[in-house]
Amino acid sequence: MATLSAHASPPWPNSNFTPNSNPNPNSVPDHSQTLDFDSLMPSQPHSPPLHTVTALPDSSPAAPPPPPPSLLHLSFNQDHSCFSAATNNGFHIYNCDPFRELFRREFDGGGIGYVEMLFRCNILALVGGGSHPQYPPNKVMIWDDHQGRCIGELSFRAAVRGVRLRRDRIIVVLEQKIFVYNFADLKLMHQIETVTNPKGLCAVSQLSDSLVLACPGLHKGQIRVEHYAQKKTKFISAHDSRIVCFALTLDGQLTATASCKGTLIRIFDTDHGTLLQEVRRGANAAEIYSLAFSSTAQWLAVSSDKGTVHVFSLKVNSSAPEPEKSQSSSNSDAATTLSGSSRSFIKFKGVLPKYFNSEWSVAQFHLQEGSHYTVAFGLQKNTVIILGMDGSFYRCQFDPGHGGEMTQLEYHNFLQPETAL
User: Fold this and answer.
1) With contact defined as beta carbons under 8 Å apart, do 254 and 268 qualify?
2) Phi, psi of 345 (to 5 degrees)
3) Burial of 305 (0-12, 13-18, 19+ CB in 10 A)
4) Taking every pair of C-alpha atoms in the chain, what is the biggest distance, in angstroms?
5) Per DSSP, what are the bridge partners of residue 258?
6) What is the pTM of this model?
7) Gene3D superfamilies in the record, alphabetically (predicted)?
8) Cβ count near 207 (within 10 Å)
9) Has residue 92 been placed in a domain?
């Protein structure tokens, strides 16, 4: 069971944190930007934080640059406009477009294993990690960067595996249980039992009028979807094997799932649990690291340990017929390359392996095999952002009509001091 300890006087602060904001978080349009990190002020001397906080260091030619920190976790915020890096001595926040470091908070030897942003506002969720955790790994610390300190915490009997935030909810993921809290007063709203979930898999919609939560079910290969507005639970038998990755669209109406085999990605309607589309990453087994829908649900990006990021066209988006034609063209090209003629597959259907008839990706980008990469779609049209646990930041562009290898537009190593602006 979770226990709560608040470091701030009631009432609990509003998660929107905009001047003169409406106290109801659901009244704020989800596509809006709340308080920009550029306007954040450092901690005031009269309000000491719970631990030492160090802002970005001033340039000093006399002092040698510090060694780069060790990355423990990377994650995008809800609209993919920013990303956070949890390290062995704090956390860093970066803007994606244009790329630049917004700020960092460094603690004296204390590691942060997980950072969850709330769009662009000053509230973050922190979980300690690394060899010397700044906070106990069984606690979620609510950090207010205006005050430069933690204003509350949620304590559990087991290690926290993940945290998800909405403007109105805090979702905490343990290895076999998920807790859903109301953000305004931290009241526990729901508990969910899951199959063993060491990766902390969980996804939540972000539209104010559509609260949908997806998590592992109680059986291997099963996804559980909670439609809170409709007070409905849907179980989807997505795969025969263990699920290792899944994602939700912003409205929660679609989910993409991948199993430990890593060859097929399936897209389901979360309302009825209907399989809408199946795409193939490859013929050989792989570990899927991340799945990401575009904001319009027209595209799906996939990263794996094979070092290739794939972009698939989604037929479930009926408002975008042209990309579907591009996907069909791309699939035919792939078939022609493999057999010499796309029509030959029709003749030998049922004889050749199933993957010859699969839907293949429209575009790809090749990286170092074995490294861990996280993907999201950029704010610019037809762009993909790729984050690597080696500190790499890539912005790539794909051609929706011709497909093929993506064009690299930008690269940075965000762990190097010279890239911090």
Assistant:
1) yes
2) -70, -30
3) middle
4) 78
5) 245, 265
6) 0.77
7) YVTN repeat-like/Quinoprotein amine dehydrogenase (2.130.10.10)
8) 17
9) yes
By CB atoms closer than 10 A (0-12, 13-18, 19+), residue 33 is exposed
Give the tens place of pLDDT for each residue, 93-128: 999 999 999 989 998 878 999 999 999 988 999 999
Quick one: tokens of 227? 């439609």
Q: Give pLDDT tens digits for 145-182.
A: 888 888 889 999 999 999 999 999 999 999 999 999 99
C-alpha to C-alpha distance for 302 and 327, rounded to whole angstroms: 16
Phi, psi of 343 (to 5 degrees): -70, -20
Q: Which domain holds residue 43?
A: 1-17+26-57+66-171
In the numeric block, the tokens 């293949």 are attached to 360
In a domain, residue 338? The reply is: no
Which residues sit opposite 3 in a β-bridge? Answer: 155
Q: Residues near 140 by Cβ (< 8 Å), separated by ≥ 6? A: 125, 126, 127, 153, 154, 156, 160, 163, 170, 172
Asked if residue 48 is part of any domain, the answer here is: yes
CA distance 33 to 97: 14
pLDDT value at residue 371: 84
Our count of domains for the chain comes to 1
Contact 260/241 with Cβ under 8 angstroms? yes
Distance CA 288, CA 243 (A): 10
Question: Residues 6 or more apart from 279 whose CB is under 8 A from it?
Answer: 264, 265, 267, 300, 312, 358, 359, 360, 361
Query: What residue ranges in 15-128 does DSSP mark as E strands?
Result: 71-76, 82-87, 90-95, 100-106, 112-117, 123-128
Rounded CA separation 49/53 (Å): 7
Structural tokens at position 357: 């008839």
Q: Is residue 328 part of a domain?
A: no
Of 228, 231, 221, the residue nearest 252 (C-alpha): 228
d(CA 373, CA 89): 21
Spatial distance between the Cα atoms of 300 and 323, rounded to a whole number of angstroms: 12
Under DSSP, is residue 404 helix (H, G, I), strand (E, B) or coil? strand
d(CA 368, CA 350): 35
Contact 337, 352 (CB under 8 A): no
DSSP 8-state assignment for residue 364: E
**What are 380's two structure tokens?**
């610019």
| DSSP structural state of residue 359 | B
Residue type (1 letter), 396? C
